[in-house]
Amino acid sequence: MSNFGELVLVVGDYNEGDIPEKFKRMLVPNKMQHIFCTGNLGSKENYDELRQLAPNVHVVSGDCDISGASPFQMTFPETKVVQIGEFRIGLVHGHQIIPWGDHLSLASFRRKLNVDILLSGHTHKNEVVEHEGFYHINPVSDDKILCVPIYCCMHH
């Protein structure tokens, strides 16, 4: 079998920790090499659950994780940049980007981080958009499903 890259799980606002049943059977420990979470973890148990699935878990602070709103004492950065193969991936919750979900604003933020792919959440709108030759990915679908993973195969 040839090496096709690293498998990455992108998870949006993870408040409830409710992974849809159809994804749970795919989420076995160490199947993915990286998990990116756009914040709002909700509990240390949710964080620990992600840590059991992949050796590299990347989390940023969401709007519910700041100013004492988080029910557990963990702090995460506002943004994070991770290199996987030839891709620079930026991670941000999304509440900092005004107007929320606007692709011109996302592109400006992406350029500021100097990344190829920008992962953001907050809008509760699932999107994978190519913009100016780069990608904006938002894994959140709506208020009823707070966790919709998007799988990405990264080649290097």
Write a concise keyword list for the protein shown above.
16% helix, alpha/beta, 156 residues, 3 helices, 28% strand, 9 strands, single chain, four-stranded mixed sheet, disordered C terminus, five-stranded mixed sheet
Q: Which percent bin holds the helix content?
A: 10-25%
Alpha carbon gyration radius: 15 Å
End-to-end Cα distance: 16 Å
Structural shape: globular
Order of helices and strands: EHEHEEEHEEEE
Major beta-sheet overview = 5 strands, mixed
- Let me know the average pLDDT: 79
Low-confidence stretches: 141-156
Number of helices: 3
Number of strands: 9
User: Major sheet: order of its strands?
Assistant: 4-5-6-8-7
Given helix and strand content, the structural type is alpha/beta
Strand content: 25-35%
Chain-wise SSE layout:
Layout (H helix, E strand, L loop, with lengths): L5 E6 L9 H4 L9 E4 L6 H10 L2 E4 L19 E6 L2 E6 L10 H11 L3 E3 L7 E5 L2 E5 L11 E5 L2
Description of the structure:
This protein is α/β, with parallel strands linked by helices. 16% of the residues lie in helices and 28% in strands. The protein has three helices and nine strands, in the order E-H-E-H-E-E-E-H-E-E-E-E. The chain has helices spanning 21-24, 44-53, 103-113; strands spanning 6-11, 34-37, 56-59, 79-84, 87-92, 117-119, 127-131, 134-138, 150-154. A five-stranded mixed β-sheet has the order 4-5-6-8-7, with helices on one face. Helix 2 links the parallel strand 2 and strand 3 (56-59). The protein is globular. Residues 141-156 have low confidence and may be disordered.
